[in-house]
């Protein structure tokens, strides 16, 4: 058992406690809805960061798996043949299979090629969803509602039970991603990100490793999709549209890549922004685009990274000032903060 | 799937001619867009994800210019030159600030720009479909070739696209400026050290690539419906063309664009619901057999 595991488990339990307690303290339904959206998009952003931040694979097509999770789950539930857990597992497994096929083609490609081929495959999946009207409802999305038959004594038609279940699933997935990123596999991925040639020389099967994380990340994104499908009781082609992937990338960038939970911060920020933008204007794209341009060109990094760096620099300056003020007998004081 | 219809069409001259002409114009539009994309990537090393939005911009500019002046020639010039100029501004004020930074930032900048352009068009022209209509100059009876009828405009379009491609190829491979641009793609420091203004060249190349997208948009305006967001599908198709043809090869882009054009034209008859799937299958096949593309040099 890894030493950090206990700490991760404790953090996960504390996080879960907080998520369960929040709607009890503030019982407005709007908060609960907001948080369920946060779970869904948060899982997509977190799983995308396994590719972007951990492995250095900038996928522009991650929302495809979000969508396949949502559609597969919705269709299975509408068939009325299987209980919720089986449908959920089948949806995740099915998405993993799709990701295996797409990934097998994509991970062989270098950097920017990878980005645009993942985007191309996402739009392919989007076009299947839109054209296969008989199965998916086309433009209108999967309508008619997704039934939520009770299972194991849980009745998801009760909004509180639904929320709690989603929170548990969300925390479990985050914990799983944490374990993967801290495992030897996770460190191999970091090596591939930093120096693929060296990883290759050391006998690492780079392609297989990339494919492994691609499939895992896609499965995690599909969980996000099925949470959303379960909540909104439907699935829509917009889930698979390229803007959804763009938003996921923006969430990662907003939250920064230096912290494991950074993408969740980004999800929270973007969701809050979207919330207010849609209230005040219908020109959502114009506002969002401008905000992105200002942040990317102005700060040149994510909001959370910006704060993180600012705090670090401040700490460094303070440490330097302290060292300079202390008697110089112990250690020569560094002249500027950067060397600390 | 309807193989019978496909065989029928192939065996009747008139249907085959019609489909070949459709495939040709789809291929030519794709070729123009892709060669711009490929040129920018070849020299600047970035993928311009806004290229599809530039195509849209070209179409709308041509639409406006035609409505104002009534001259299709002017509309074409406005579409191409306007987008070229816009490309230069975009390169100077936005894109050049994220050179050398990670791909994530470049993607985000492009993503933001597409959102802004799509929404901008929506504000100016409204969200509904717009039609430019065939210019009066081309209101001629269709030309009859081997029993099939081909609109005169199609022939004009193919000629313009071919001419643009030829000029581009000659310009890059046969002129002094083209030689400098090729050198810039290989070793920008050296080119700069020789006293050549690389910043200006980068902006120029980006502008030229954008101009090609704008020209494609202007040429497409009379035969396509205009909507905000019309750029996405052509962007995806030009990615596929790039992969099949090989990055950085104009001849490869030409070949692959025609291949995709014909796949679309004949696929629409044989497998109406599976046209996109056919393109992707073709791309997957090329990636497995020859990862660098049909005419690509280095491995992807």
Automatic annotation (TrEMBL), chain A:
Domain of life of the source: Bacteria
Principal place of residence: membrane
Signal peptide: none
Keyword presence, Membrane: yes
One protein family per Pfam: BPD_transp_2
GO cellular component: plasma membrane
Keyword Amino-acid biosynthesis: no
Keyword set, alphabetical order: Cell membrane, Membrane, Transmembrane, Transmembrane helix
Record-annotated membrane-spanning stretches: 37-57, 64-81, 87-107, 114-135, 161-181, 211-236, 248-270, 277-299
Localization per record: Cell membrane
Membrane protein topology class: Multi-pass membrane protein
GO molecular function terms listed in the Swiss-Prot or TrEMBL record: branched-chain amino acid transmembrane transporter activity
Protein name: Branched-chain amino acid ABC transporter permease
Organism of provenance: Methylobacterium oryzihabitans
UniProtKB/TrEMBL annotation, chain B:
Organism superkingdom: Bacteria
Single GO MF annotation: transmembrane transporter activity
Transmembrane segments: 59-91, 103-125, 145-170, 191-219, 239-262, 269-289
Subcellular locations according to the entry: Cell membrane
InterPro entries cross-referenced by the UniProt entry: ABC_transp_permease, BCAA_transport_permease
GO terms under cellular component: plasma membrane
Membrane topology: Multi-pass membrane protein
Protein's GO biological process: amino acid transport
Main location: membrane
Keywords from the named record: Amino-acid transport, Cell membrane, Membrane, Transmembrane, Transmembrane helix, Transport
Family designation: Belongs to the binding-protein-dependent transport system permease family. LivHM subfamily.
This protein's name: Branched-chain amino acid ABC transporter permease
């Amino acid at each position: 058992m890894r030493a950090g595991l206990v700490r991760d488990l404790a953090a996960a339990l504390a996080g879960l406690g907080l998520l369960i307690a929040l709607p009890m303290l503030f019982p407005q339904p709007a908060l609960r809805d907001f948080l369920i959206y946060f779970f869904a998009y948060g899982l997509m952003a977190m799983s995308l960061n396994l590719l972007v931040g951990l492995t250095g694979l900038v996928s522009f097509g991650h929302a495809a798996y979000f969508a396949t999770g949502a559609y597969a789950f919705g269709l299975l539930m509408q068939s009325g043949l299987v209980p919720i857990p089986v449908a959920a597992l089948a949806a995740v497994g099915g998405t993993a299979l799709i990701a295996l096929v797409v990934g097998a083609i994509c991970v062989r490609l270098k950097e920017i090629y990878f980005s645009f081929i993942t985007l191309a495959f996402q739009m392919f999946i989007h076009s299947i969803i839109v054209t296969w009207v008989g199965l998916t409802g086309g433009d209108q999305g999967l309508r008619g509602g997704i039934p939520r038959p009770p299972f194991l004594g849980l009745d998801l038609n009760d909004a509180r039970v639904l929320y709690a279940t989603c929170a548990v699933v969300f925390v479990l997935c985050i914990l799983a991603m944490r374990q993967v990123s801290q495992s030897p596999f996770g460190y191999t991925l970091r090596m591939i990100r930093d120096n693929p040639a060296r990883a290759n020389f050391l006998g690492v099967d780079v392609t297989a490793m990339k494919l492994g994380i691609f499939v895992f990340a896609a499965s995690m994104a599909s969980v996000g999709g099925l949470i959303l499908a379960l909540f909104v009781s439907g699935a829509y082609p917009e889930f698979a549209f390229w803007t959804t992937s763009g938003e996921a990338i923006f969430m990662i960038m907003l939250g920064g890549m230096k912290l494991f939970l950074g993408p969740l911060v980004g999800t929270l920020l973007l969701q809050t922004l979207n919330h207010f933008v849609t209230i005040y204007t219908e020109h959502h794209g114009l506002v969002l685009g401008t905000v992105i341009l200002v942040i990317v060109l102005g700060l040149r990094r994510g909001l959370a990274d910006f704060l993180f760096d600012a705090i670090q620099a401040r700490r460094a300056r303070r440490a330097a000032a302290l060292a300079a003020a202390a008697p110089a007998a112990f250690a020569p004081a560094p002249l500027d903060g950067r060397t600390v | 799937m309807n193989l019978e219809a496909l065989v029928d069409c192939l065996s009747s001259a008139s249907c085959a001619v019609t489909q070949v002409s459709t495939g040709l114009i789809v291929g030519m539009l794709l070729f123009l867009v892709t060669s711009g994309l490929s040129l920018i990537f070849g020299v600047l090393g970035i993928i311009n994800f806004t290229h599809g939005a530039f195509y849209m911009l070209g179409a709308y500019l041509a639409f406006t210019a035609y409505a104002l002046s009534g001259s299709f020639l002017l509309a074409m010039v406005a579409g191409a030159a306007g987008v070229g100029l816009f490309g230069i501004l975009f390169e100077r004020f936005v894109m050049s600030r994220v050179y050398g930074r990670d791909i994530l930032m470049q993607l985000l900048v492009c993503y933001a720009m597409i959102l802004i352009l799509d929404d901008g068009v929506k504000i100016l022209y409204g969200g509904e479909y717009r039609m430019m209509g065939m210019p009066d100059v081309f209101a001629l009876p269709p030309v009859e070739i081997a029993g099939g009828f081909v609109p005169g405009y199609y022939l004009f379009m193919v000629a313009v696209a071919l001419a643009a491609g030829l000029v581009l190829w000659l310009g890059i491979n046969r002129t002094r400026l083209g030689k400098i641009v090729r050198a810039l793609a290989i070793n920008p420091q050296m080119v700069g050290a020789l006293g050549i203004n690389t910043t200006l060249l980068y902006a120029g190349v980006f502008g030229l690539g954008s101009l090609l997208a704008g020209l494609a948009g202007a040429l497409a305006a009379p035969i396509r419906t205009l909507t905000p967001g019309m750029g996405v599908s052509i962007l995806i198709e030009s990615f596929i063309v790039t992969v099949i043809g090989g990055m950085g090869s104009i001849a490869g882009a030409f070949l692959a664009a025609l291949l995709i054009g014909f796949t679309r034209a004949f696929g629409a008859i044989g497998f109406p619901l599976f046209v996109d799937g056919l393109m992707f299958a073709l791309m997957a096949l090329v990636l497995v057999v020859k990862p660098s593309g049909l005419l690509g040099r280095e491995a992807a």
